[in-house]
Amino acid sequence: MAAGPAAHRAADRAQSVVALGGGHGLHASLRALRRLVDEVVVDDLTAVVTVADNGGSSGRLRGEFGVLPPGDLRMALAALCGLDEWGGTWERVLQHRFAGEGEMNGHVVGNLLIVALWEQLGDHVQALDLVGRLLGSAGRVLPMALTPLDITAQVRGLDPGDEDALTLVRGQVEVATTGGVITRVDLEPAAPLACPEALQAVTDADWVVLGPGSWFSSVIPHLLVPDLRDALVATDARVVVVLNLEEQPGETGGFGPADHLAVLVEHAPELAVHTVLADTRIGAEEHQHLLEVVEAAGARLVVADVASDDGSPRHDPAKLAAAYESIVLGAGAPGDADLVARP
């Protein structure tokens, strides 16, 4: 795929980065990227967050008030909190979840704060910016769309009478925990209004980061919002796809690294991917298969140690930051030979 003008920029200045996703995957990615803000490798950081959550505190607030689900937005804001005492204190407050036996059980302070500001200000973006100011945020957090969304999935293998039949599963929580094999995801409504500030951030970015995270319910949905998809296809930014460390039971059961990339490309074949980042734990056979899919996409493969040392399937923010820095400062052209980044 042809590289745009951004592919020829030298990394001799701080870069602007847009990270897309949701939940714990985006949280880890933002934790990593905020380190590059501190090191002045990145000077403009924006998170664009999915708004389809229908479970937990977010789902309850969405159902009661008809608002965007605030949970993933809250987690992104928490990831970008200032590293001083003020930022650390407010991060803990933002993430505090009420216990007890009453109606407040399970609600999170940050979710309530965000919804309260939405009601006070009547503007999603202004309210999120205000929370960011309170937290001393190292970047901006934006919703991918301005209306709550539902994710639907076509799932094979749920019908005991016909293992090839497709069943429609609706809802982010339901999709994330389904059995069977997801063949495709879509959004309801199918053409939601994208956040204009998110579109502008993607247009202006030097780098766009997709993943890690719940692949079908947090990563791919960004490619299903028509205006956001168009912006991602048209941007001169270099697109980096960060692969998950392993399959997610229910959502991506049986998936290897190459399967994650292949299904993303299938949902948005016109998206020009510059770099694919995978962990060093990938086996030799998986590595070769992934390299073939990466090369078919016209991208380059970076393999780095980015996994947490505790054995969990989560990215370590410090290791991920080192990998991001290596990619940004040593960016080559798509199609380059397999590159191993060693933080």
TrEMBL record:
* Presence of keyword Lipoprotein: no
Is Cell membrane tagged as a keyword?
no
Keywords, alphabetical: Cytoplasm
Q: Which residues form the signal peptide?
A: none
SUPFAM superfamilies per UniProt: CofD-like
Q: What is its main location?
A: cytoplasm
One Pfam family of this chain:
CofD
Kindly list the places in or outside the cell where this protein is found, as annotated in its UniProt entry.
Cytoplasm
Listed NCBIfam families:
CofD_related (TIGR01826)
The UniProt function text for this chain reads: Required for morphogenesis under gluconeogenic growth conditions.
Q: This chain belongs to which protein, by name?
A: Putative gluconeogenesis factor
Question: Which organism is this protein's natural source?
Answer: Nocardioides cremeus
Gene assigned in the entry: yvcK
